[in-house]
Specification:
The chain has about 280 residues and is of the alpha+beta class. The chain has seven helices and twelve strands. Strands 4, 5, 6, 7, 8, 9, 10, 11 and 12 form a nine-stranded antiparallel β-sheet that branches. Strands 1-3-2 form a three-stranded antiparallel β-sheet. The longest helix is centred in the middle third of the chain and has 34 residues.
């Protein structure tokens, strides 16, 4: 059995991966050594691990995170290929979102102004909402939105209640790649429900808001950030005072829509300037 093991240097030579990368993969549980000498700490690997290491390198070349690579490699052939395709589709959507953000930033910085986001106004009535909240960064945001939605939907089902409008998220602070912001996910309902652990109940006050409608291709933090900026700029340009924190409204077709379908709004409550 000892003869079937190779050193980390030999594995590095066969896979073109550095010993540093191989140690990282081992420490993350992605490519643990077959044997570690308890006295010297030298790592040895089985010959079958050469192929796994090669596949890790192949997937890392696509930019896939290590945690996701572990899921892909532990799946069966067809499922594994499907997971890679799903990852790449997500990356293409993220790239399109960043491209929209770049176009918007270029227009703003050049002083030309932007017509990318069309701003409208509407009145929103008071509504009772269940809510859950957490401080998150941009990287944490998608996972939190999904978890919060499931938590609120489960609570509604248990109470025999249903939604009376689209779910929305209220941003009480700036969420970015560099800082955490408090995000509150709200589920409107007309039914009698009680608060619970991690779930509150309140009345969202009636207000007037400025908003811009977004299609499925605008999903993702970069494009949404541009939309938030555009609505804020519109309020400043028209002399309106903010009446509450920014929010995003998510419509039921969010998960199934085609790229050009309306799936969300970015909105900001405001108080009209005097005489408006």
């Amino acid at each position: 059995m000892q003869e079937d093991l190779i050193t980390i240097g030999e594995l590095a030579a066969r896979t073109r991966l550095s010993p540093k990368a191989l140690r990282l993969y081992g420490d993350r549980g992605l490519l643990p050594p077959a044997r570690v000498d308890p006295r010297t700490g030298f790592r040895r690997y089985g010959l079958a691990q050469v192929e796994r290491a090669r596949r890790i390198a192949l997937l890392r070349a696509t930019g896939m995170p290590l945690a996701r690579i572990a899921v892909v490699l532990d799946a069966s052939g067809e499922v594994s290929a499907g997971l890679v395709e799903a990852y790449w589709q997500e990356q293409e959507r993220a790239h399109a979102s960043r491209r929209d953000a770049v176009d918007y930033a270029r227009d703003v910085l050049s002083g030309r102004g932007s017509t990318m986001y069309e701003i409208a106004e509407r009145d929103v009535p008071a509504q009772k909402v269940l809510f859950t909240r957490r401080h998150v960064t941009a990287a944490d945001l998608p996972g939190f939105l999904a978890q919060a939605g499931e938590l609120l939907f489960s609570h509604l089902r248990q109470a025999g209640a249903c939604l009376s409008g689209p779910v929305f998220a209220v941003y009480h602070g700036l969420v970015s790649e560099d800082s955490e912001g408090l995000v509150e996910v709200c589920a409107p309902t007309l039914n009698a429900v009680e608060p619970a652990e991690r779930i509150g109940l309140r009345i969202e006050p009636a207000h007037r808001e400025a908003y811009t409608a977004l299609t499925k291709r605008h999903e993702g933090y970069p494009a949404m950030a541009g939309a938030h900026d555009a609505v804020g700029a519109w309020l400043a340009e028209h002399g309106h005072a903010r009446g509450g924190p920014n929010r995003e409204v998510y419509y039921p077709n969010w998960a199934t829509a085609e790229p050009g379908e309306h799936v969300a709004d970015v909105a900001v409550p405001f108080r009209p300037r005097s005489g408006a």
